[in-house]
Amino acid sequence: MATERLEAAEICFQGHAMGFDMHMSRLLASTMPPREAKLDSAADAFAQTTQLCRHLGLACTPPLDIKGMDDLKAYLTHLSSLRPNILVRSYAA
């Protein structure tokens, strides 16, 4: 089975910080609930989003023993087998 070649900068193996992708707002805006739906307050929504991002950061953080591309490929194969349905972009610090 052929696999796609992966290339990553060395900084990708040195931890990351969570961030928000402002371009995702267009996608999210197209799936807004009907006007009759009751929405949580902005403060509650922010608290829930912050907690979700913390959990996603822990769940999607690669183990510390990744030293090269082969380790990264193995981790990405494992992560994709879990079939995540929520995507969060990671930004290198």
Describe, in plain words, how this protein is organized in 3D.
This protein has 93 residues and is mainly α. The chain has three helices and two strands; from the N terminus they run E-H-H-H-E. It has a two-stranded antiparallel sheet. The model has no long low-confidence stretch (mean pLDDT 66).
User: Helical element count?
Assistant: 3
Beta-strand residue fraction: 5-15%
Strand order of the largest sheet: 1-2
Mean pLDDT rating: 66
- Uncertain spans: none
Share of helical residues: 25-40%
Distance between the termini: 35 Å
Structural class call reads: mainly alpha
- Written as H for each helix and E for each strand, in order along the chain, the element string is EHHHE
Shape descriptor = elongated
Q: Main beta sheet: strand number and arrangement?
A: 2 strands, antiparallel
* Structure summary, number of beta strands: 2
Radius of gyration equals 17 Å
Task: Offer a few descriptive terms.
93 residues, elongated, two-stranded antiparallel sheet
Chain-wise SSE layout:
Elements lengths: L15 E3 L5 H6 L12 H18 L9 H13 L8 E3 L1
Antiparallel strand pairs: 1-2
